[in-house]
Amino acid sequence: SELKLWGGRFTGATDPLMDLYNASLPYDKKMYAADLEGTKVYTEGLEKLGLLTKHELSEIHRGLAEIKEEWSNDEFVAKPGDEDIHTANERRLGEIIGRQIAGKVHTGRSRNDQVATDMRIYTRTELQKLAAILKTFIEVIVKRAKNEIDFLMPGYTHLQRAQPIRWSHWLSMYATYFTEDYKRLLQVIERTNVSPLGAGALAGHPYGIDREYLAENLGFNGVIGNSLAAVSDRDFVVESMFWSSLFMNHISRFSEDLIIYSTGEFGFIQLADAYSTGSSLMPQKKNPDSLELLRGKSGRVFGSLAGFMMSLKSIPSTYNKDMQEDKEPLFDSLVTVEHSILIATGVISTLKANSAKMAAALSMDMLATDLADYLVRKGVPFRETHHISGECVRAAEENKLSGIDQLSLSQFQTIDERFEKDVFETFDFEKSVERRTATGGTAKSAVLKQLDNLLSQLS
Ligand code: ARG
Fold first, then answer.
1. Which range has highest mean pLDDT (140-149, 269-278, 284-293)?
2. Residue 1: pLDDT band with limits 50, 70, 90
3. CA 48 to CA 408: how far, in whole Å?
4. Beta carbons of 221 and 141 less than 8 angstroms apart
5. Catalytic residues
6. Among 20, 25, 84, which residue has the most ligand 1 atoms within 8 Å of its CB, making it the best to mutate?
7. CATH number of 111-360, picked from 1.20.200.10, 1.10.3720.10, 2.120.10.70, 3.40.50.1860
8. In which band, very low, low, confident or very high, does the pLDDT at 316 lie, cut at 50, 70 and 90?
9. Which residues of 314-336 are buried (b: 16+ CB within 10 A; e: fewer)?
10. Other CB atoms closer than 10 Å to residue 230's CB: what's the count?
11. Residue 144 clears pLDDT 90, i.e. is over it
12. At what angle do helices 111-147 and 327-350 cross, to 10 degrees?
């Protein structure tokens, strides 16, 4: 136990299972670069205080650079007693530059402010990567929507055919969700990117370190204004996982729609082979596994959020080891979301949209509302026209006609004398969507405006 950095007051050996139970190195080594960068800047702060000489600082920086090389070449050798990434890096620094100098880097610092710093650096970097690929995903959806602006399909409520819409309008709906996700992500990054470094274990820095200097040189936007909050706050972890959960919720609904649209019964889309798999038994099968995994993994990401919220809720102030449980769920969520965005981008850029099948799924009863609107334009109150249009639907059914458009003018006029010859112009899907030019509607001009508006929000 003399290997342990905090071993001074401990005499007995730890239960070997306790060592394993306690160790976070297997997963927090992901943060090695953040940890080394934090130490690099922190020791600059110590040198400014006269707590390190210039020579000592340059030795430390030389050692840190060498450790970084080892990690990035997969050559770092962990030793028993390397409890986490912080202790592992410090132990190795001592081996490279000597314990005399390495023993000074932790002056005034605690693993409590260190781990909070590392986590924030790591998280903001990963979230920035997500923002970049999310932007591409949205751009791909918008491009597809512009290319296929003329495809009409049924819009649904209750999964029942409701009114005709453009396929691009459907795409634009998800692009709208994802654009909100993008903007929300930038806000989460903003709140994550504040510095806990220099808060010490909890009470603050005993040598008056320049926390603003540390923050600025680590790329933070500012410092956390209370040392207790600095070491105990994991809201950025929760927010990152909430963001991930909400995003995956959108991805899941998007996938569910596409799974339905890819069935034989719908046939609106066909997934590319690259994102489908076959059945080991049924030769004819082509399964939308990519979409099912996107839908399924949303549950896993939400589980991570819920699990960590449980861990966090009753922790007394300030640092407690429970907080080490922030890492695995966060890291898992970030990787899952990253892969999900990339897969979803692949799916949407390679699927085939079948406009003929979409058009074939449109039925005349979907224009019953338009028929009601026809009489509204002739001055009849909507509540009345709604009823009249319903009677037309029933008359068509009773006469075993294929749709309301097959009623004769005299049949229309028997139901309501205000129907005129121009009623037949109602029965045109294209005209129906083109009437919806108001902002946010499914007319071509309105959809194109939405798409451009979305692009302009992607800074
Ligand atoms: N591995 C620990 C974590 O992830 C580092 C902080 C340990 N600090 C402490 N006082 N035990 O939370």
1. 140-149
2. very low
3. 92
4. no
5. 158, 279
6. 84
7. 1.20.200.10
8. very high
9. eeeebbeeebbbbbbbbbbbbeb
10. 25
11. yes
12. 10
Length of the chain as a residue count: 459
Domain parsing of the chain, residue ranges: 7-102, 111-360, 364-456
The two three-digit tokens of residue 12, written as one number: 């007995």
Q: How far apart are CA 63 and CA 56, in angstroms?
A: 11
H-helix or E-strand containing 152?
Answer: strand 152-157
| Model pTM score | 0.94
CA-nearest residue, atom 1 of ligand 1: 84
- Identify which of 82, 170, 221 has the alpha carbon closest to the alpha carbon of residue 353: 170
Atom of ligand 1 nearest to the CA of 119: 4
| Cα-to-centroid distance, 119 and ligand 1 (Å) | 11
Structure tokens at 358: 């979409």
pLDDT at 282: 83
As for the ipTM of the complex, it is 0.96
Helix 235-261 with 167-192: angle, nearest 10 deg: 170
**CATH 1.10.340.30 fits domain 7-102:** no
Tokens of 364: 């005349």
Euclidean distance between CA atoms 43 and 451, whole angstroms = 49
CATH of 364-456, one of 3.40.109.10, 2.60.40.3880, 1.10.10.10, 1.10.40.30: 1.10.40.30
State what percent of residues in the chain have pLDDT above 90.
94
Q: Which residues pair with residue 155 across a beta bridge?
A: 163
Q: What are 345's two structure tokens?
A: 């981008």
Ligand 1 center–CA 323 separation, angstroms:
8
DSSP line for 132-149? HHHHHHHHHHHHHHHHTT
> 331 CB under 6 A from ligand 1?
no
Cα→Cα distances 42→52, 121, 198, 208, 216, Å:
11, 14, 8, 13, 11
Mean pLDDT of 299-317: 97
